[in-house]
Amino acid sequence: MAAWNLYRHRNSDGSSKDWAVRSNSDGSITTRWGKTASNLPGVSSRSGVRQFDIERQKQAKGYVFVAEVDIDGNGNVVFPGNASATPSPLPEPDSNPELVPTPPVEVLYWTIDCRAKQAVRVELGIEVRRLIGAIQALADSHATPEQEWNGWQQWIDATLNAEVFELSGQIKSTHGVLPCLFLLALKHQGFKGVDIDIATETARDLSVDLKVEQDVLAFFGTDLDSIRETAEVLGLLKPRLNLAAAMSNTDDCWF
Known about the structure:
Structural class: alpha+beta
Helix content: 25-40%
Oligomer: single chain
Largest sheet: 6 strands, antiparallel
Number of strands: 9
Order of helices and strands: EEEEHEEEHHEHEHHH
Radius of gyration: 21 Å
Number of helices: 7
């Protein structure tokens, strides 16, 4: 097992999620994440980004350093046996840091931890089915790579009996943009007790504001204008006012 720096983010409802990072001998970094537990299921590795920088990004988002821990290949977290042991300090920033360009998106990682009350879980299940139905109605019948994403059935099965659950998975470019929009739409709703995270391989959390996620849309080979209709139906964008249509229903007031 290797040493990792473990961070924790506490939510307003009392729940929390963890994130850990380590540097590898080849210069890449590996991150793990998930709800606060003895296992962190989410994992990704990336080159072209410094551990110091990515830790600072997480701290800016409210993550607090917990300890230096060991994590095995299955994601099991082991705290040091000596409680007095102090974690190794974070690396000092360079006086003349090298600017590393933001790496392109290569895959998205998503997790959900649903510990909401039963009434909220029922509402979540209803909304999951409504969104999937809306997406199916809007999908282009000539382009169906999204059907290959196993998350659709995962979400249906998990919310069928309105029980507490947790899920995680990936979204690749071949899956199309619809799974991503689906998860962002659920996250945007902010169900109490339902923690949904979507992140790039560099552990950058996605915003529900599609206007700032142009690189993610480009990852799927699309852009904001192309997915506007779907995003409006899912509640991620406000519908545009069609002035021509609105004016056509008004009486001619010229005389």
